[in-house]
Design brief:
Elements (H helix, E strand, L loop, with lengths): L15 H11 L19 H22 L6 E5 L5 H8 L3 E6 L2 H9 L6 E3 L12 E7 L10 H10 L1 E12 L12 H9 L4 E8 L3 H13 L7 H7 L8 H28 L7 E7 L1
Parallel strand pairs: 1-2, 1-4, 2-3, 4-5
Antiparallel strand pairs: 5-7, 6-7
Amino acid sequence: MKSSEGPVDPARVYPAKEYWSRLAEARASSTDTSGLAPVLHPDVPPWFNQLIDKLQLRAIRRALAIAGCHPGSRVLDVGCGTGRWVRRYQGFGFDAIGVDATPAMLRLALERGTTAPLVAGEAGCLPFSDAAFDLVSDITVTQHIPSSLQPAALSEMVRVLKPGGRLILMELIRGEGAHIFPRAPQGWIELATSRGLGLLGWFGQEYLLFDRLFVGIIRGMAPRNRGLETVTKVLSANPSGDSPISRRAYWALRHVTALLSAWAEPVAEMVCPVRLATHGVFIFRK
């Protein structure tokens, strides 16, 4: 997988602020009290986002252990969205602050019970002084920034880190989409180390083998069977026009494959090549 730091491909640029504002505003009055839908998968059953969130929390606990962070550390969560990580960092005993470019997301964060300071600002121009934080976390944020703008975002995260401070990145290392810009693992590592950071360690996250196999089978069958067009719409997060019965059947089956995958995730992490993971979790030291 290649990534480019050249000019932004116009075909891949998307209106970021409008996109994230629309997601937040569409769910401002929903029953999604956790605030997961706008920051994970917006058009899926709540249980799926809860499963993904649980796996991500497990990965972040592991990353914090590698980073060697201690209670009382000053932590900045970049792209804090609806505040789930800011709230958790507070629970871990950190002095946490969140920053996000979308005011509607910050409003949701407050409505979901976030009590830590929240600041409006963009990753590429963080509104903080140099060397202000012991830890900066970026959980699936830079992957949504066009590749040519990612270096500026990483430079800002490095700028606000204290000497000896840690940076945790959890970003896509595979996949494609109109608003995602993944890099191969070495691409993320080079992006950070070229800005003066040293790699402490990294690991793959979110294998979900049985679930991905099931989705792959459905995708493979769809071109040969027009009767599966409904499922294809669901897979593309476009449920308009779906048959409710087909959608329920699809997610009932996927509930089984996802739960099996989550149960097998620790084994997958040990035995599978890291290239099979969906995300990489990278821990750096300034």
